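Suppose you are handed a protein chain with no further information: no name, no annotation, nothing but its sequence. What can you learn? This example shows the usual starting point.
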Amino acid sequence: MRRAVAQFLRYLANERNASDLTIKAYREDLFGLIEWLEASHGQLPKPGSLSPQELRAFQSALQEAGYARATISRKLASLRSFYRFAMRQGIASENPAKPLRNPRRQRKLPHVLSNAEIGKLLLGPPSDKVAGLRDRAILETMYSAGLRVSELVSLRDGDLDFEQALVRVRGKGRKERISPLGSYAIRAIKRYGRQRVREAKTESMGRNAPVFVNRFGRNLTTRSVGRMLEKYIKETGLDSRTSPHTLRHSFATHLLDRGADIRSVQELLGHQSLATTQIYTHVSAANLRQVYEQAHPRANA
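A reasonable first move is to predict its three-dimensional structure. Written in structure tokens, the prediction is:
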């Protein structure tokens, strides 16, 4: 089993060109199964000998352990992918994960900031230091283009087209999209870039240089962006549920609130399925209901 999993991970890296994060997720999911099999069976069975009933028992163990429904669905998807590979390689004759049903997903509405809260957050970083200019540019860019934090930290100088007000974004599955970039974000990036060049005492950083770097001039991590945001959330007194992804949620919701069509928002977010984008229509409807109840004289008895 371990050898088959290692073979599958090499396949993802070498032939599917999967990202490091994707490979890490598959590794964690499949090694979670291996650990459970060793604990429950006392030994590790061969991949081809597992039955759907045994994998259902593994799914039940995940539910009892308190894993979120979305996490369990992802782990089941990893098992299905692994067994499709195993069947092609002759390691297994059938896919025992195929009959498993994903748990029903709870449709939790995403946390969204209001226009006033977004404005308060964007004014949080100080403008007298390069770190503050960088943080302002990061927040403006994430909200302006609806970026995931992983997309933000992978931006390169060559991805920015200030003349056309566009940015090239590398999304999930290494898929690229072109997103508009607002004037506030462009000005913030330019201010940060000028100060960064002055402090580095160099004329150009190069088209392949990361747009946003730490104080050592190296790539930011997603965690460092999260810590940066946490600091400004505390300083501005905003809701502690706010995360980097909240800016993406707010981007989509504010567009729909102002009449953008859902297909356009889907393209801007880089969603493969329209169903993923439709969650924001529920948020918009909830906002509209709140406005109605506050403003209409006969909304409440």
